[in-house]
Amino acid sequence: MTPEIVVEVFRNALYVIILLVSAIVTPGLAVGLVVAIFQAATSINEQTLSFLPRLLITLATMIVIASWFFSTLVGFANELYVSIPELIG
């Protein structure tokens, strides 16, 4: 196995990780920004007001994209398993 192949596999793994994490984190960041603007405009400094909506949106996002999430992971794992003979030889 050459270093180029290792770097390519690592690059693909990082791409999948960044894609999946960003799909989960981005809606929570957007809701957190909206809540922070609301808190700044109304001078409300309640910590749970910013935490609970982000938690609920993150959970809802995970429920909605669960099938895509796992199909992406399974697709990457299948590509990796299929390419094992090429990686070794």
Extract low-pLDDT stretches.
none
So how many helices? 4
Largest sheet data: none
Query: What class would the helix/strand composition place it in?
Result: mainly alpha
What oligomeric arrangement do these chains adopt?
single chain
- When the domains are counted, the total is 1
> What is the typical, i.e. mean, pLDDT?
92
**Cα radius of gyration in angstroms:** 19 Å
* Overall morphology: elongated
Please give the number of β-strands.
0
Tell me roughly what share of residues is in helical segments: over 70%
- How far the N terminus sits from the C terminus, by CA atoms, comes to 7 Å
Give the topology string: H per helix, E per strand. Answer: HHHH
Q: Would you give an account of this structure?
A:
- By secondary structure, the protein is mainly alpha-helical.
- It has one domain (3-88).
- The protein is 90% helix and 0% strand.
Describe the structure concisely for a colleague.
This protein is mostly helical.
Q: What would the keywords be for this entry?
A:
0% strand, 90% helix, mainly alpha, elongated, 89 residues
